[in-house]
Amino acid sequence: MARIHRAAVVGAGLIGTSIALALRERGVAVALADPDPAALRLACELGAGEPLPDGPAERPADIAVIAAPPSAVPDVLRAAQDRALAHVYTDAASVKSGIVAAAERAGCDMATFVPGHPMGGSERSGPGAARADLFLGRSWALCPTGKSDPVAVAAVVELARLCGAEPVMLEAPAHDRAVALVSHAPHVASAAVAARLAGGDDTALALAGQGVRDVTRIAGGDPRLWREILAHNAAPVAGVLEEIAADLAAAAHALRSGTREHDPAAAAEAPEWDRSVVGLLERGVRGRDRIPGKHGTPRTADYAVVPVVIPDEPNALGRLFAAAGAADVNVEDVRIDHSPGLPLGVAQLFVVPEAVERLVGALSAEGWSVHA
Ligand SMILES: NC(=O)C1=CN([C@@H]2O[C@H](COP(=O)(O)OP(=O)(O)OC[C@H]3O[C@@H](n4cnc5c(N)ncnc54)[C@H](O)[C@@H]3O)[C@@H](O)[C@H]2O)C=CC1
Ligand SMILES: O=C(O)C(=O)Cc1ccc(O)cc1
């Protein structure tokens, strides 16, 4: 069984720094490299590791993680292997088939390389957005090629577990089709909704609630990174987008036919409506229900929600979580809604249904305004 004591992380952005922070928490020594000196300095200042010295490695690390943009990965891998940076190599890029093929073409040693993709992330970039718990409870796709050495595979499985993630083995083409469905096409769809807002008037935008924020959060991702991801996974993403576009076009067509009939209630009874609008909404509920929760735990929708008013003052959330902890209630998830211009917000605490009564009692006794 592999044992990771020393790691090198090349690319100290959001993902590299988050992996490094998670490893540091587990006592692993981390050396970091990044061509951007400001990113490297910040990652080191955040406690993610020490700068990796230039030149041939004195002693190879147990594992090197390449967390650079997808198109940089093959050359960075080749250079790292040429200087014997580590015994085992993996990457974090969001696409896999093209990178494996390019790594082969670049003459990389494919025995020590196990392609990977941690399925935690964020719409933010850079080490400043990094978090040690970014991968906690997430899956981590591993796509060993036929040439990957089993010892190298074991080391990358250990890396994923050290970061709190669950390794999932699959072949690179299957990976790319899967992430087209669950990550890449959703990103483009989110961007399409968000792009409508760019031309929206201020009054409309002032009415924006949580729904539109949820649907557009990922659209905030770095367009340069997403351009690369989409270019590397173009055909599978195009396939999913065509299906989404067909659903949207059918729904729009049915809605239009309703407006022509001047009788919205009657139009909503029409078979086309049932199929294209109601049918789509129902399929949407079914699709969403299939998204698993962390580590197979219930989805957020299966928890009870306890709304608590929080004053906009220092450490209000800290006090709220401490009160929940003192009542021995595990807050599984939290969402914070702020109304613009109001000095108050509402924290939605997601807890198992059995804990609601205890939590409400404890918070109310401490003077919190609870609205369960
Ligand atoms: N953003 C996300 O949520 C996720 C991203 N990924 C993948 O992780 C990788 C890194 O993405 P992020 O950390 O989000 O991007 P980022 O922009 O936060 O960080 C990328 C870092 O790589 C550095 N870099 C650029 N060229 C390099 C090179 N030739 N050698 C070494 N470092 C280089 C940049 O200076 C930057 O600090 C990408 O391949 C991406 O597809 C994977 C999972 C989630
Ligand atoms: O922001 C989120 O919730 C994400 O899921 C981000 C993300 C972006 C790219 C990936 O390859 C994997 C995950």
UniProtKB/TrEMBL annotation:
The ACT domain, residue ranges: 305-372
Keyword Oxidoreductase in record: yes
Pathway assigned in UniProt: Amino-acid biosynthesis; L-tyrosine biosynthesis; (4-hydroxyphenyl)pyruvate from prephenate (NAD(+) route): step 1/1
Descriptive protein name: Prephenate dehydrogenase
Keywords carried by this UniProt record: Amino-acid biosynthesis, Aromatic amino acid biosynthesis, NAD, Oxidoreductase, Tyrosine biosynthesis
This protein's record includes keyword Thylakoid: no
Residues of the signal peptide: none
EC numbers on record: 1.3.1.12
Domain of life: Bacteria
Sequence ranges assigned to domain Prephenate/arogenate dehydrogenase in this UniProt record: 5-285
Family annotation (InterPro entries): 6-PGluconate_DH-like_C_sf, ACT_dom, NAD(P)-bd_dom_sf, PDH_C, PDH_N, Preph/Arog_dehydrog, Prephen_DH
PROSITE patterns the record matches: ACT, PDH_ADH
Single GO MF annotation: NAD+ binding
GO biological process: tyrosine biosynthetic process
Catalysed reaction, written as an equation: prephenate + NAD(+) = 3-(4-hydroxyphenyl)pyruvate + CO2 + NADH
SUPFAM superfamilies per record: 6-phosphogluconate dehydrogenase C-terminal domain-like, NAD(P)-binding Rossmann-fold domains
Family indicated by similarity: Belongs to the prephenate/arogenate dehydrogenase family.
